[in-house]
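Appendix B. Extra example for self-study. Work through it before the problem class; the solution is given directly after the inputs so you can check yourself.
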Amino acid sequence: MSDMLNRSLLPILRPESVAVIGASDTPSRIGGRPIHSMKTMGYTGRIHPVNPRRETVQGLPAFASIRDVPEPVDCALVAVPAAIAVGAIRDCAECGVKSAVVFTSGFAEQGEDGAVAQREIARIARDSGMRIVGPNCLGVFAMDSGWYGTFTNAPAMIERPPGPVGIVSQSGAYGSHVLIVAQKRGVGANYWVTTGNECDVEIGEVIDFFVDSPEVGIVVAYAEGIRDAARLRQALGKARDARKPVIFMKVGRTGEGARAAASHTASLAGSDAVYEALFRQYGVYRAGTTEELVDIAYACQYGSYPAGRRVALQTISGGVGVQMADDAVRYGLEVAPLPQPVQARLKTLIPFAGTHNPVDFTAQALNEPDLMLKNIGLTIEEAEYDSHIVFMTTVPATPFMKEPCADLFRTVRERWPGVPMIMSLVGGRDVVEAYEKLGYPVFEDPSLAVRALAALTRFGEAFGRGAGRAPPEPPAGMLPVPAAPAGERDALAVLASAGIPVVGASLAATPDEAVAAAAALGGPCALKIASPDILHKTEIGGVLLNVEGDTAVADGARTLLRRAAERAPEARVDGVLVSGMVAGGVETVLGAVCDPVFGPAVMFGLGGVFVEALEDVSFRLAPFGVDEAHRMIGEIRGRAVLDGVRGAPPADLDALADALARLSVFAAANAGRIESVDINPFIALPEGGVAADALIVPQAG
Amino acid sequence: MSDMLNRSLLPILRPESVAVIGASDTPSRIGGRPIHSMKTMGYTGRIHPVNPRRETVQGLPAFASIRDVPEPVDCALVAVPAAIAVGAIRDCAECGVKSAVVFTSGFAEQGEDGAVAQREIARIARDSGMRIVGPNCLGVFAMDSGWYGTFTNAPAMIERPPGPVGIVSQSGAYGSHVLIVAQKRGVGANYWVTTGNECDVEIGEVIDFFVDSPEVGIVVAYAEGIRDAARLRQALGKARDARKPVIFMKVGRTGEGARAAASHTASLAGSDAVYEALFRQYGVYRAGTTEELVDIAYACQYGSYPAGRRVALQTISGGVGVQMADDAVRYGLEVAPLPQPVQARLKTLIPFAGTHNPVDFTAQALNEPDLMLKNIGLTIEEAEYDSHIVFMTTVPATPFMKEPCADLFRTVRERWPGVPMIMSLVGGRDVVEAYEKLGYPVFEDPSLAVRALAALTRFGEAFGRGAGRAPPEPPAGMLPVPAAPAGERDALAVLASAGIPVVGASLAATPDEAVAAAAALGGPCALKIASPDILHKTEIGGVLLNVEGDTAVADGARTLLRRAAERAPEARVDGVLVSGMVAGGVETVLGAVCDPVFGPAVMFGLGGVFVEALEDVSFRLAPFGVDEAHRMIGEIRGRAVLDGVRGAPPADLDALADALARLSVFAAANAGRIESVDINPFIALPEGGVAADALIVPQAG
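Solution. Structure tokens for the complete assembly:
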């Protein structure tokens, strides 16, 4: 397997020889700080300062040009002004330097002139094969080797030994910030990569490299926009399959945020709903705050991902038990009650304990810590929980309780070493570290403990399910996307060829033909004006529903033809579409769009106001299989409607999922050709489902 | 004014003489710890241990009985077992002790026997006038006087001087927890009250006392259930009028949580939607986590509540600027752009800065801190913002930047002392405290800084608006609540008498009368079966809409009468109700319920699936005026529907608010008589609105 590992960033992250272009003798300057950091932090490779005006730099022999460096260089740090940076980078490429990290700013982030220069750098990378990080980045480092190719002062604030976290951030300032906050939280990082303007190395490739690096077990990522979506998807899928959690902060969720992102870097900001889809699809945890990002990474360090959602809550405060139960439900965990016989046994141990789940030790446990051990043991051994949280407030830091409490939880770890268990306690750093050493993630706030456990559980589920069932095969004879926007009849025909069930319908040129068509269908029918030029039929009163009987059908057809002539006199009219009425069911909307970054994506929502007023929809990137489709159906807030409200029977979710998966396959097969597909409504029936109307808009030429 | 202040808890919170019933010589025991705490922490009053088996306790002369204490006692701490506690409490009352704090557990929280004993304690309080805190509580304290009437060991962990926060918690364990977490966060508390089972003193009275105490500026409260709702409402209204923020954690939001609450204390858990209504109505901040509770109290310590929602974001990291902008929108703040001329001036200062808002200083500001001062000054002086957040990451803790940065922000405070401004920075405690001393609330996490600022802003708004317009006067001649459940006709008549517009309708006994009634209304009409026994008419097919023309009306009436005879043969049938069709508008639901704790409450939602599948409704406690009604309308997720979707005109929100306020007045006037009122639908029209159907259910028996 090892020959299949991604080693493309080895020269950048594990260089044996580095050059510093624009090296400075002053440790606080941009060209001086990396040298100073490497010298003080034990870099074991060779450092070659390049500075035409100095013999030595910080005690090292300096060279006038990269061409004078007497050995092959793995990585060059470029710390010269924008005006001469492109030339310096070209020199590096010509000398066979394997990679460059470009600190220099003044490129695509500062307008068109800068963008031109940046494209030139990208071209050098492409032509020479020299890999380039940046420009406009804060650099990279690998703590375990003392390699500090960065001019941030963050390395001076590192206080933790190297750990299993790899950090990649498009923003250098944020990358430094999250590193230091992580240090304070007890999170050990090793690799740190800021990608800046990403003219060559992008965040997806860095994640991919991390996944293949045995030193990295957890990925922390920050992005404002993504350039190479396929690369990112591939890396995220690989991370999931390798059981390496990815915790991602993607900013620009709202209008204001996205605007600030656009003005900050030269990012392509895809629509947030599509990012959300990406993260859900690949089991990535999206953090909303830095605290959350770091908290989840912290919890992941213990490497214990629950197999399911059933959590046992144990607490020394009943009130906090209630709060944790609230939180657990909010975060999607299951607070299942203890089996009755176990509750009965707990009651014999502590008569006044709450035993249902949460289990409330009560203050009595303080007098007899052994009772807590018995409580915890019973909960672990006699019930089927996937994970545990124990809330101890300040007890583990309290003079008389400190020792017995530590003994108790040491015993718990010894007896049940594999059980996922988080501690919530309040104490000084010494107390926290003592429990961490025993193998417990420690959270001061019980609600944040629940949030972290829910994240671990979601990772456990994502690792367990993997990619899920494959997308269905595209049917033979799938029709092409129409060349012009196509409404009901043509659109449904195309979708039917893609394997999506559609309502039966026939075109009637005259009222008499409509009567005949209705008679052939039997029962009440729907009449709709048929015209390639009238895509929004209701706006001209072009739809009549539930029409029954020859006279009514003939009258209706005449009415529609008259309205079309009056209200859309320019439109070509083919006649009237006669289709069966679908009785009952739930109106849903299935859609596909082509995201400028991620390509075809499929949307699901309930009809009408759910989509329009509530924006209650979920997305997935195409193509996907029915497992993923079921998950996207489950994400909408109004999903209870599908279970049946007011005594209605539940909708056939398998049929709905199948239609979504098939639409995703159609969209993926037509990437670049479709602008959008709307199946509105797709009527989800108690058995099966049917597309009753649709609109396909091809991409403009 | 001072004679109107609530001083009812003075003997409990500012006692000059205390007795400890069950005093122990051992400082770690329940009866020993309060004495130990008071002695070591400088209590200035007199302490009288009561213990029949000892001459002295912890060096103080002990008495065999409370009766032997030679002076009037303000507060007795009761630390004896449940079996003798009631007698001890009775003795205290008989001796004229002014108040008692009962630590003893084993009362209502442990079943019916305990509840009986607790009722006896309550009776003693009522009969004697002696105020009682507890039973089953951890006690009370007032730090500034060294009064520690508590057996928690939390006092030993206090590291901050007394501050403006008053803490009241039903749970003793949680009260201790939040105190210590608050200490760690830099929040100074003074009063701390745990109310336990609340046989006499309840959380509402404690808040009321806090509001009237000059030592308290901020109230932190924790509750699992409320007993005296009126008292709590009065206290919360008073806090708002006194501009004292109340930050509340109410647990038991979800089914699991509420169940745990019920098993933990003998609380009456009102429905969570009604608590949510209470908090919104009175401008209370509901915290979801302890971290949030403490963070908001921390920010309130600076006493600066923005007058509006416009926030200026300044940042040294563009990425964090995006994140803060996202957060600000999520928390309801407005990230309005800087005026163009100001942006132009900023551009001349830092050419590459983001100037829109967020303002991105960029790293250049690190070289010239003076630029940041100019940036901040322009944003304060030349634009109309209500508040500011400045994100500095680790810069204020960085060796070369530490001094200039502190100078800069000292200058900002001196020049613009009143401006609400939060700092987000990462540094050690010394750095954080230096900025706190300058008057800046400090948050490590920028997202949590935004959350806190949003909370301050919500307090500012609530303080500014006060109680809002009063509820409308009940109209003269308002009809009484029907004695039995009443459907459309009778219910609408009652609601019309309460000033709510209702649809015109008349009762037709025969098809002919229906034709005449329809002709009198003109246009299409609705026909509905009229029977006091058929409350859900659609279930028997008893509603026909949009009926027009004499034949159709007569046919329709006959159909309804036949269906009633066939499908509800037992029902008394009055005939057919003929009412005008309301064209257009948005279907909404107005409801009233009687909450077991808080009494009448009014609900608002959109019709159909919005209420049923999404539970997208908002509540308010009755009665209220139109301002409050407008706010509850604004809270539903689907509110965009009221603004008009698909080209529909916006609904008349004033008319809707008026109907809600009038319904609230009706519900309040009939507290105890109504079980529920449903106006479904109330059709909100472009001008006005009309109740089209209703159901009033009186309270049983």
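Self-check: Chain A has 23 helices and 29 strands. If your reasoning did not lead you there, revisit section 3.
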